[in-house]
């Protein structure tokens, strides 16, 4: 099967958009990711997927900590910046939460210590033990077929 067919098929799954952050001796680093999921309630675990060649991979491996900020529907520009789609340098104001850098005003901020890491294909799957969560009452930014969108609640009658 062709790589483009696989990528196109995977883009048909609507996801939320996150920014993964970590901190090292060089400062705070972030990357946009939609490969994020809940793994377990007991213990509380989440999973992120980071490409083997991404600079973030070595940074998380060294720090053994990361945070996940689930972006709000008004934070598309933040997603684009951390995805490398906006090339101009910006001074990003991070918020400290539980000792971790997070994106302010996100729908959810989750702080994690690396619980385990698995290399699978061309990505490392980091399982994070959740250390704290902060929730804001906002609507999420979504991604479908490579396009940003927003969440519309469907109510049953």
Description:
It comes from Aliibacillus thermotolerans. By secondary structure, the protein is α+β, with helices and mostly antiparallel strands. It has one domain: Electron Transport, Fmn-binding Protein, Chain A (Pnp Oxidase, Chain A, Roll). It contains three helices and twelve strands. It has helices at 3-10, 55-63, 76-82; strands spanning 15-16, 18-24, 27-33, 36-40, 45-51, 65-70, 95-97, 100-102, 108-120, 123-135, 141-144, 147-150. Strand 11 and strand 12 form a beta hairpin.
In the sheet with the most strands, the strands line up as 3-2-6-9-10-5-4
How many helices? The count is: 3
> Measured on Cα atoms, how large is the radius of gyration?
16 Å
Sheet with the most strands, sense and barrel status: 7 strands, antiparallel
How many individual β-strands? 12
CATH homologous superfamily placement: Electron Transport, Fmn-binding Protein, Chain A
Q: SS-based structural class?
A: alpha+beta
* CATH topology type: Pnp Oxidase, Chain A
Poorly predicted regions: none
Roughly how many Å apart are the termini? 43 Å
Query: How many domains, in number, for the residues?
Result: 1
Reading the helices and strands in chain order gives HEEEEEHEHEEEEEE
Can you give the helix content as a percent range? 10-25%
Give the DSSP E fraction (strand runs of 2 or more residues). over 45%
Round the mean pLDDT to the nearest integer and report it. 93
* CATH class category: Mainly Beta
* CATH-derived architecture: Roll
Oligomer: single chain
- How would the global form be characterised? globular
EC number: 1.-.-.-
Domain Flavin reductase like: 10-150
GO molecular function, one term: oxidoreductase activity
Keywords: Oxidoreductase
């Amino acid at each position: 099967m062709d790589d483009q067919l696989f990528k196109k098929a995977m883009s048909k799954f609507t996801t939320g958009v996150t920014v993964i952050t970590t901190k090292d001796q060089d400062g705070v680093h972030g990357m946009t990711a939609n490969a994020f999921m809940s793994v377990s309630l007991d213990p509380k675990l989440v999973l992120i997927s980071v490409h083997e060649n991404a600079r973030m991979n070595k940074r998380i491996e060294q720090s053994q900590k990361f945070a996940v900020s689930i972006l709000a529907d008004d934070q598309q520009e933040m997603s684009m910046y951390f995805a490398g789609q906006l090339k101009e340098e910006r001074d990003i104001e991070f918020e400290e939460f539980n000792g971790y850098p997070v994106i302010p005003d996100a729908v959810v901020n989750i702080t994690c210590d690396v619980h385990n890491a698995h290399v699978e294909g061309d990505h490392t799957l980091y399982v994070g033990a959740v250390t704290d969560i902060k929730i804001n009452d906002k609507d999420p930014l979504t991604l479908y077929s490579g396009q940003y969108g927003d969440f519309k609640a469907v109510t049953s009658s």
